[in-house]
Amino acid sequence: MKHERKTFVILGIVTLLALTVVCLYLFVPLKGNIQYILRLRMLKVLAITLTGAAIAYSTIIFQTITNNRILTPSIIGMDAVYQLFQTALVFLWGTTTLQFVDQQVNFALTLALMIGFALLLYQALFRRDGTNLHFLLLVGIVMGTLFGSLTTFLQVLIDPNEYSGLQSRLFATVSRVNTNLLALGAAVMIPVMLYGLRHVRVLDAIALGRDHAINLGVDYGPVVRRMLIIVAVLMAASTALVGPITFLGLLVANVTYHLVDTYRRGPIIAAAVAVSVIFLVGAQLIMERVFVYSTPVSVIVNFVGGVYFLYLVLKERAAW
């Protein structure tokens, strides 16, 4: 009981911190056309909250079913699919044509392509019973490397001016998210996250390991397949909405594990969403007020996340 109370106290603290960072971003400093500025900032905060929630949610599920705390859904090649698609568009039609393409069409095509890739991968590998989850990860790594190599090949052939325009599409940013894209992203992500909450108790059993979960009555294969589809849809929607943020999930999940010492996935997911909002809104605040829009928010998050990833690797190596 005392342990549960401590978990909820920590959850309340991180939620309060997330609200504080959001308020700082919205109201400090606030001068000029207040109504216009507040509307713009609220849209950005909504985009950040939705993206951060999707990444944190999908990473916790992915690490639970793989039973590994240093893996993220990016390992199955979702970021590589996004970068290849955007690069192929610029290679075939150029950035000038893309400026006239409806953002909603680009978002819908990117989302459909990434979800289709994930479903094809899962359908091909989980068609037979007993397929090893680690084999799926291996295939995902190989496909991600292949797509990354194709992306690099196309980028070498692109005109330098076109390549410069492409770079803005390959870095995560919430500045270009418009209201319609936000509504489309919410229409995809929120129902999927609500559906995933129905399986939170099952995830508690899966976190104990495959054999223990099966002994507890979990229909392991179909449940893992549904969880992977949820992860794929959330990662595809968040990446199509703002761009790839590779290390955010790793950073948020592991910080949450240190803060919330519980096996229950419900409090962990809730805390991870709050921590994700703190990191993303904080990074956006620093990017706008300190670096004056000169640095993409993904650079700040990936720098901190990359350093933390090296710390985790060195820590695990010392444990061996």
From TrEMBL:
Gene3D superfamilies: ABC transporter involved in vitamin B12 uptake, BtuC
Membrane topology field: Multi-pass membrane protein
TM spans (from-to): 7-28, 40-60, 81-101, 107-126, 133-158, 178-197, 228-253, 265-283, 290-314
CDD domains named among the record's database cross-references: TM_ABC_iron-siderophores_like
Keywords annotated in UniProt: Cell membrane, Membrane, Transmembrane, Transmembrane helix, Transport
Stated family: Belongs to the binding-protein-dependent transport system permease family. FecCD subfamily.
Name this protein carries in UniProt: Iron complex transport system permease protein
